[in-house]
From TrEMBL:
Protein name: TetR/AcrR family transcriptional regulator
Organism superkingdom: Bacteria
Any matching Pfam family: TetR_N
Keywords: DNA-binding
Entries under PANTHER family matching the protein: HTH-TYPE TRANSCRIPTIONAL DUAL REGULATOR CECR, HTH-TYPE TRANSCRIPTIONAL REGULATOR RUTR
Length: 219
């Protein structure tokens, strides 16, 4: 069973619609376009509703980042018992989603904006991206690999180190290159499959005979 450690905040469908509009405004117009009045008009809601749902500007930014991070899926809590095949499926889903989100216009805009504001006094966007974006994704993915270890499918001494190996295999230097203007991958699924195969080669559990468990990538 996979724990629900590090669950993402849950928004209503209407709140998700508003957050999508907020992200669109940010991508199209930058930081200055993201005002309470502008968002209320774009999302066809009242400013009072925005304050009620998200609080101040920092609260809105945190919600936007959490909403974006929620698009990177991991296995949900349930009664499913992990197998070698289902673990591979969950890891590849995570890897594909991570690549899709990182290469999207929204994430690139958020990261570029945070980098541009990093030298400003009082700028909180970078910290919000780490706490409500990267760390939330990390926690849920680490819960998955911890579940894989408990199921006897993965072996590692340090879950954090194992997870960052997985992350590095998936992302490599792709995100930095995309932030500098290079296009994303043409085949995220293939990159995800290769990364997970490499990760399982490093951390796949072994049977008593000493042979690695088979994590077939065949479909």
């Amino acid at each position: 069973m996979i724990a629900d450690a590090g669950r993402m905040p849950e928004f209503t469908p209407r709140q998700n619609e508003v957050l999508e509009q907020a992200l669109r405004l940010l991508v199209e117009g930058g930081d200055k376009a993201l005002t309470t009045s502008g968002l209320a008009r774009a999302a066809n809601c009242s400013k009072e509703s925005l304050y009620k749902w998200f609080g101040d500007r920092d609260g809105l930014l945190a919600a936007m980042i959490a909403h974006q991070a929620s698009k990177v899926r991991t296995a949900e809590r349930g009664k499913e018992r992990l197998t070698a095949e289902s673990l591979r499926d969950h890891l590849e889903l995570f890897a594909r989603d991570l690549l899709e989100v990182l290469s999207g216009d929204v994430s690139l805009a958020l990261n570029r904006l945070a980098i541009g504001q990093s030298s400003r006094d009082g700028s909180k966007l970078g910290k919000l991206l780490v706490e409500h974006g990267r760390r939330q994704i990390d926690r849920r993915a680490m819960a998955l690999i911890d579940a894989g270890k408990r199921a006897g499918l993965l072996r590692f001494d340090d879950a954090d180190a194992a997870y960052h190996t997985l992350y590095g295999l998936i992302v490599s230097d792709l995100h930095v290159r995309m932030l500098l203007g290079e296009p994303g991958l043409k085949d995220n699924a293939r990159q995800a499959e290769r990364a997970v195969t490499a990760f399982l080669s490093l951390h796949g559990a072994r049977q008593e005979s000493g042979e690695a468990l088979r994590f077939s990538s065949g479909r």
